[in-house]
Amino acid sequence: MRPGFYIAVFLIFSAKLSAQTGTFVKSPVTSWGMVQRIPEFRSAYIGTRTIDILVPDEYPGHPTERYPVLYMHDGQMLFDSSETWNHQEWGVDEALKQYNKKTGKSCIVVGIHNAGQNRYAEYFPKKPFEMLSSQGKEKIALLAEKQESRRMGEDGPASDLYLQFLAKELKPMVDEAFRTKKEAASTFICGSSMGGLISLYALCELPKIFGAAACLSTHWPGIFDDNQNPVPAAFLKYLSEKAPSSSAHRIYMDCGTAGLDSLYPKYHLQAEKILKSKGYSGNKMKSRIVKGANHSEQAWKARMPEVLEFLLGK
What we know:
CATH class: Alpha Beta
Number of domains: 1
Number of strands: 8
CATH architecture: 3-Layer(aba) Sandwich
CATH superfamily: Alpha/Beta hydrolase fold, catalytic domain
Number of helices: 10
Structural class: alpha/beta
Shape: globular
Distance between the termini: 30 Å
Order of helices and strands: HEEEHEHHHHEHEHEHEH
């Protein structure tokens, strides 16, 4: 990472961001571009959050260029495996470097760190949850009691608040501080597992904000018990009712077949059928079942070049 690059970007943006976000700290190490870490982005909707923003390598040298923006969940897992709990990463910077070398295109990436024990509550789509019967909601609550990281609190999912944070606080800040293409057609959202669910939910709930979603290893069951589980049916019903117009939106979705991902193919195929009935075909949707792929950052890293090609290569 070039020192002059870091200093230039810091000087340009620190004045705009400091009042909202507080002090800057050490950023992840990347092989391409530069990540600026905002350790305490304050929100009226959710708890204080760490945000990592990667700008392309050429950003300082092209002062009139504007860039698409990719918003990604579980932001602490994207760039630097030395910082992650399992020493794995998505390798987003490497994938962008490869894509940029191949096409000359790039984008800004906004990595939103998850909320730890509140991650499940923020990523579980609220409206499908509300479609469940009282027995279905009770089943989720009983299973969540066995695992603290799956608890949602008395008010249920916090995903609608999380989406308000994205739409009303985070995106406006990014658009003001960085040279972005603000329109929905150039604004994407991406995540895996529960992050896949919230990405699809964001596309449905905020169709004027996001033009495309990438949903990897989407956790359709919502919980870890697939025995008489009412959650997938609720999600699929919601999708059939709320999928945004295919004329202005695009969807990438995939899953593997190993480990936790082995639960997903049957629901993935049902979701694919629903989306095709809504006009998602051709370059509007890419749907994959990756034989042998498991539920890990290494698996998603392997598919990241394909995700970028779909989102940025239109």
